[in-house]
Amino acid sequence: MNVQWYPGHMTKAMRQMQEDIKLIDIIIELIDARIPLASKNPDIDKLGNGKARLIILNKCDLADDKETKRWEAYYRSKGFFTLKMDARKSGSMKPVVDKIEEACAEKLEKNRRKGIINRPLRAMIAGIPNVGKSTLINSIVRKGSAKVGDKPGVTKGKQWIKFGKTVELLDTPGVLWPKFEDKEVGMKLAAIGSINDTILDMNEIASYVIDYLQKNYCNALKERYNIEVDGKPHELLERIAVLRGALKKGGEADSDKAALLLVDDLRSGRLGRISLEKLSLEKADMINEEEK
Ligand code: G4P
């Protein structure tokens, strides 16, 4: 199976983002903490050239915290400001405002020297589908931040949300789709549910996940299913099917059902906190000794 995903509206989305980016000071890019490379669209770097950048490793509640910290250190070493978060949680908004102010400190200072004091920092949320952009925007709106409305002449037709005292957030996020040629990247995106399931072979995704877990999180499999975890992925799927009563009419193990079950367990965190991407040694060289 070769996973590919080319939505036709990509060009339109790019054009929209190019327009919106002119209006803003900082791009808040959401990535999925479980796959911090595969869920990052490199086009956002091109579009955001020269803007302050904050990367939020969202869904950190589902990722391995040790790995998330290393990824944060990696992105910081590349010049990004970073935060890890669970966008569904209330109370996770103040750190975002604080980080935006930190990332835009130079801009604020420049404004202050020019005598501009109350100009808000303008931010935009961007990222691939399903990383939690709407959840984050909703959390900000729920906190009672009023909509600012149109600003004639400057931001025609745009809605802004007041975010803390100093920030205004564009209410429509920039959506770019994942970009990949590598089949493994496609597998990871599929495993966490960022690619439409209907174009995928669930059995193959489940086998990919089992193989990865056997090598990296062997205990997660043992603890969840209480089965012997040695052997080929298809053998494990059969064991899981029997254990969970996923059987075909003749009593034969239904691996397809077991595959669905396993992928669902992964996506919902029932297999524990799992990172599907670990920082490679080569990339780890870029971060400080104490952060490794
Ligand atoms: P998007 O706008 O970037 O496309 O993503 P959206 O906010 O719609 O979030 C996608 C799903 O991820 C939602 O689940 C949402 O609740 C969940 N989500 C967002 N942030 C977090 C987080 O920090 N941790 C966890 N665990 N989940 C998060 P959903 O509505 O149930 O949709 P689905 O999971 O059934 O697709």
Q: How would you explain this protein's 3D organization?
A:
This protein is of the alpha/beta class. It has twelve helices and seven strands. Strands 1, 2, 3, 4, 5, 6 and 7 form a seven-stranded mixed β-sheet that branches. Helix 7 (183-192) crosses helix 8 (202-216), helix 8 packs across helix 9 and helix 8 crosses helix 10. It is elongated, with a radius of gyration of 21 Å. The two termini are 35 Å apart. The structure holds guanosine-5',3'-tetraphosphate.
Quick summary:
With 292 residues, the protein is an alpha/beta fold. It has helices spanning 10-21, 43-47, 65-77, 94-103, 105-113, 133-142, 183-192, 202-216, 218-225, 233-243, 255-268, 281-284; strands at residues 26-32, 52-58, 81-85, 121-127, 160-163, 167-170, 174-175.
